[in-house]
């Protein structure tokens, strides 16, 4: 198992799982709010198609969390609306 | 520009069943092969993380969710064998270059130049031929409330189970139709999921129509497997609601309930599935010829019997060329590899045809049940074009069905003009989840068949790449700037 | 027999702006357009309302561009009011950044010349050093050696503009015919018959605004349109919080927050299907040198579109001597010139003739006989 931080919560996830899986296991209510209406979203497709799992991972915004494999100490942070440039 | 290294004989994009089989076959035929794949390990979506349970030394035993008995079955073992075969070929052959975590963001088909991105860094590889084995995606199921947290695709739930050993907490529903719904139900129940309801959307007359389509005799083994799955699911307590219409997801900031005509269910997780469609993002961006598959209600690239496309250097194998499942994909991958060797002058036509006999027979067997399944699980018109104007169809830009219909009335004749008018398809997913729905809505508003409304034309980059990666190393201060 | 006063061929920004302008003059207008995948420059437009650097050596073009920029607020207000769609016009001035002393010297010379050629209108601009630019633009790169600013420049959303013009056109009773390729065109003075998609339209005025398609249509009514496609590519990033207070000639931030990176030019025939990684690389490189923070943004899309280029790169506005009532309008600045087309050109067409001030825009300037 690997420990990562989702928001400020430590979460244990199996090695090889994606950051998006960690988000769903963390019970966070939303990983992002949309830039258009501010609606909350969580991962939807888990296979790189929908881009609803965009998150700030290790300081880099708008990464597809379902395409990133967890690593020990990884920081997965929710996003609110548009990212900073 | 400095000339790069010598081109490979064959570049394969995607290491699912088709890509793996093609790579092994092409390597055996003496071709130099580069196999690029977005995932960290081979297997594709269907055999995602299959190695982790197969005693692979790279796998972490503590995270061994793939060894979960919930996933046991002959398909899993076949997947593990396929991956092991690829690993063995990679280990034995210097000609076979496997690049995991590598996405294709642009393909210059005429020049045979693939632009890639690996861990955020841009790269290039040249090839004389390209095989696209990029697989399928789940058909979008735009129902009211499908953007709520707690609504996922059935495929997503399967990936969570395979890679993280996770099942939904509390009550959950699977809604839709197709074999995956039953397979997922069994897998979730075996893994200890809570109360599970299957809301079946197949229409009442589907079974008689499907039986008339034939193919049952040669496909009876797969059919038997399906029937036994259904039996097990019911035995494990699956509640089944047949003939579900008017499905909608409800809740404020997350899913609280699912409702349909004549019923409602409190639950925290809804898993949607209306079958899979070929992922045509790259083949469309390349401008390859496509044809409308009336049986599966989707577009697919026009292919010959070897998987060759309308571009002389590009072939497609696997579900990306039309949905057939993993066994058909393996056969198609081998056929495409044989044809590549033939076109590169490494194999004459007679030898190619002789070697093609076993995969051709396998392909026939694998596809035997397809007409039956297509008839049985034809999506309802409401799935293709949501009737409720308030339903979001473009999840990224939050464009509704009603807005698309209004744009069609303004004169937008297809999804590309709708995109210009409404931004549907301009968000991060680039129309992967709304393109087919928008076309169907425009067709409905204009009173024309869906294929006549056209398709969204995707653009590079096929996968996200940063401006910095595009720019590459910056020129020195005194160099001229392009 | 339908009572159509004018047929406009071409539903891109040029055609629909003129059609909208003709309606405002009280004309009943039919607008013919292509389908879903036309070579639609309007959909690939960068979205600048740009004055700086337009019309060097051609004072009439400089003036036309300035006039359009000045008319733009009125066009935007009209469309907002009529349709509720905001074309997102902002005219805070604009900047061109220079990454070498040679670029800066060339810039200085161009602007000095534009001022000399501006006649009584005057031409306000400033050359800025990096310190002054840093005050105006956040996160400027260390390789920027200077730049130029004019107050006339701005930007708008080409897609909002296109939708607003189409909506205004339809709501004013215009007849829009999509998926309609002109099959035959029978001209007679003040009487034009266009057969397209199985119907025949007749009107005393005909406006050819079909972009590159004008090259084939113009000779049918005694006009000429020597045009070629020039490919431009544009990179668009994911949305970001507002950061750029004004547009640059090669970078702007849209109302939605995306950064657009553009200003490339290639000869690639009619190929808009492909993008070219080397061209994208050069564009991205220049953008990162201007603003290093751009490097971290994801590209969501790049696209190619065709500029409609005449031999000297300037617009062609013309009227047929043989078939009075036939007009031609073509340019590669459909956004910048939208206001001029709707509010200055359309009234001339409605009145029946282009003014003499427009004669330098005629295609006659390309005739070898006149070139001496």
TrEMBL record, chain B:
Keyword flag Oxidoreductase: yes
Coiled-coil spans in chain: none
Annotated region described as Disordered, given as residue ranges: 51-75
SUPFAM superfamilies xrefs: FAD/NAD(P)-binding domain
Gene Ontology MF term list: oxidoreductase activity
Domain BFD-like [2Fe-2S]-binding, chain residue ranges per copy: 392-442
Keywords of this entry: Oxidoreductase
Organism: Roseomonas acroporae
Pfam family, one: Pyr_redox_2
Protein name: FAD-dependent oxidoreductase
Domain FAD/NAD(P)-binding: 9-333
Residue ranges with Low complexity bias: 52-72
Matching Gene3D superfamilies: BFD-like [2Fe-2S]-binding domain (1.10.10.1100), FAD/NAD(P)-binding domain (3.50.50.60)
InterPro entries xref list: BFD-like_2Fe2S-bd_dom, BFD-like_2Fe2S-bd_dom_sf, FAD/NAD-bd_sf, FAD/NAD-binding_dom, Metab_Enz_Cyan_OpOx_G3PDH, Opine_Oxase_asu/HCN_bsu
TrEMBL record, chain C:
A UniProt-annotated Pfam family: DAO
Cellular component terms (Gene Ontology): cytoplasm
Record-annotated membrane-spanning stretches: none
Residue stretches making up the FAD dependent oxidoreductase domain: 5-346
Keywords annotated in UniProt: Oxidoreductase
Gene3D superfamilies to which the protein is assigned, alphabetical: D-Amino Acid Oxidase, subunit A, domain 2 (3.30.9.10), FAD/NAD(P)-binding domain (3.50.50.60)
Classification via InterPro entries: FAD-dep_OxRdtase, FAD/NAD-bd_sf
An example molecular function term from Gene Ontology annotations: oxidoreductase activity
Domain of life: Bacteria
Protein's name in the database: FAD-binding oxidoreductase
